[in-house]
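<goal> How does this chain fold?
<sample>
Here is the protein in question

***
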Amino acid sequence: MNAKEIRELSTEEIKNKLMDSRQELMNMRFQMVTGQLTDTSRFKITRRLIARLETILAQRERSGKEG
């Protein structure tokens, strides 16, 4: 999901996606510790998605835009 797609979502949808992504990252950390995680590249992808979501939320808060 790129920044353009995220900007098209409502603020509530972005918050839900952020919560889901954080949960996914936590689950991947548990899988890594137990040796169940095979695709470690998902860490980078998920962390970058979380950063994009947080950045766009912060931009909306600064501009006062609810959408």
About this structure: The chain has one domain: 3-61. The radius of gyration is 14 Å. The chain has a mean pLDDT of 93. Residues 11-34 form the longest helix (24 residues).
